[in-house]
Amino acid sequence: MTITSTASLLSAILSSVGSRTECATPSTDDAALMEAVRNGDSRAFATIVQRYHVVLYRVAWRTLLEEEAARDVVQEVFVKLWQRPTWLRDGGASLRTWLCRITLNASIDARRRRRPTEVLPTEDVAAEPSGGGHDEQLFAEWRRQLVHRLVAELPDHWRNVLLLCYFEELSHREAAGVLGISTKAVESRLARARRALRDRLARHGLPGMAGLA
């Protein structure tokens, strides 16, 4: 299947998400699905896309902070998966961990290809809204945008552990698998990242780790 036809298949799958109550083979485990994909089964591929596209999009978006770029990365990951379904369980990383690793790396590459002016600095985030309790929703959105910008400004090795452990709620072991480092290294980076982010949040009047939810 060509890249164009693979992208068309992926587009059709993604457009159907939400219009169906279940995947083609909802109870099939990842290993069986990937074996079917290796044999050219597009229904198995559709199930994998429906199972993981949301988490992969979140990983890409939290790295790039731009919807179209995040969608492009996710499409690229799934196209590569269809063309080269190389994942093998063999007691190693889960398919979710493997896909997250590929997506994160692709997102980092896309981020590095950007011109410096394409990254919105923290000072360009709208000023904190006033009005107290009457503007709670507005304040929550301001805080969310600010937190994402502050996280985006952290060095890659700190940002990535926060992204995986806090936003995606991966265990330290799973995050270590995605990042290709030890669990102890994840714990060390996470502690440093938390301190760095706390300092940045405090400068904007947000105590502790508020806004990470």
Describe the structure.
Helix content is 66%, strand content 0%. The protein is mostly helical. The protein folds into two domains: 1-119, Rna Polymerase Sigma Factor, Chain: A, CATH 1.10.1740; 123-213, Winged helix-like DNA-binding domain superfamily/Winged helix DNA-binding domain (Arc Repressor Mutant, subunit A, Orthogonal Bundle). The longest helix is centred in the N-terminal third of the chain and has 23 residues, at 42-64. It is globular, with a radius of gyration of 19 Å. The chain starts with a helix and ends in a 10-residue tail after the last helix. 29% of the residues are buried. The model is unreliable at 16-25 and 119-126 (pLDDT under 50).
How is the quaternary structure best described? single chain
Query: Considering the protein shown, what is the CATH homologous superfamily of the largest domain?
Result: RNA polymerase sigma factor, region 2, helix turn helix motif
Order of helices and strands: HHHHHHHHH
CATH class of the largest domain: Mainly Alpha
- How many domains is the backbone divided into? 2
CATH architecture term of the largest domain: Orthogonal Bundle
At the fold tier of CATH, the topology name of the largest domain is: Rna Polymerase Sigma Factor, Chain: A
Class from helix and strand fractions? mainly alpha
Q: Assign a percent range to the helix content.
A: 55-70%
Number of strands: 0
Cα end-to-end separation:
41 Å
In terms of DSSP E residues, the strand content is: under 5%
Mean pLDDT: 79
Quickly count the helices. 9
Shape: globular
Which spans of ≥5 residues are poorly predicted at pLDDT below 50? Answer: 16-25, 119-126
